[in-house]
Design a protein that fits this description.
9 helices, 17 strands, 26% helix, elongated, alpha/beta, 310 residues, seven-stranded mixed sheet
Length: 310
Amino acid sequence: MRIIFAGTPDFAATTLAALLTTEHEICAVYSQPDRPAGRGRKLTASPVKQLALEHNIPVEQPLNFKAEADREILDHYQADLMIVVAYGLLLPQSVLDTPRLGCINVHASLLPRWRGAAPIQRAILAGDKKTGVCIMQMEAGLDTGPVIQRAEIAIEANDTGEQLHDKLAQLGASTLLETLKNFEQLQSQAIPQDNADSCYASKLLKAEANIDWSQSAQQIDRQIRAFNPWPVAQTLWQDKMLRIWGAIVIDSHNQHTTPGTIIQVERQGVDVATGDGVLRLLSIQSPGKKAMPVHDFLNAHPLKVGDHFG
């Protein structure tokens, strides 16, 4: 097939790299416009654009598809199929109708659960036991189209947002390649979603990173894992904002110490009372420094029993 690929971040680049190993022709790549990045705020191409240029594939970067010229360029490629992975734009119906077989999306959740921008992190935050990827026929709605193919994986107790992202990127790529082998038959058997079971995976906000120690140890642990590597869970200590990169629940039962109070300081971890249970902090970052294991952090920061976070 002649395929147009639309995507922007690393998650999408994993799928594009897999597609480039197949017999299909990637006739064009669509990606978000270059954005400022790094300390110098230099305009930087997305991972998908960089990969496309390495393989001499034409790259298009429209702000949206409102201009007739952008729709004409899309039509000019005469694609059989458009594959969309974390592109970052809602596509109008005119675009969805342009390729012969329409547009499909590789989405990192078990639809209809977790439609929207941050399904990986929301699944961890909610305590879901499993997640996966869906290959979906795209409609004008947000992740509402019928599901062509799906694949599941377990969410492990220590999975971070980054680790689950990488697992699902690989799963999405392999599931898509399997789907393309028998695409038109599978497309004809696509299963509509039940809207009653849908959840909205809203975009992550920096404000969500602040730890509320009155929550349970299990919920705070999910927050720390889900927000690694962004926006990174954080808590206040002596006018410093500490970022918490790793922790484990060591007691999930109720206790009577004020939430946020340090109840034990050892080189293997700092134990903190929560609204329900005890959380052991394993990796901490102070302002302007790198994240480090607790035993290194304690060499420069005098955390002690009775200190209070938050």
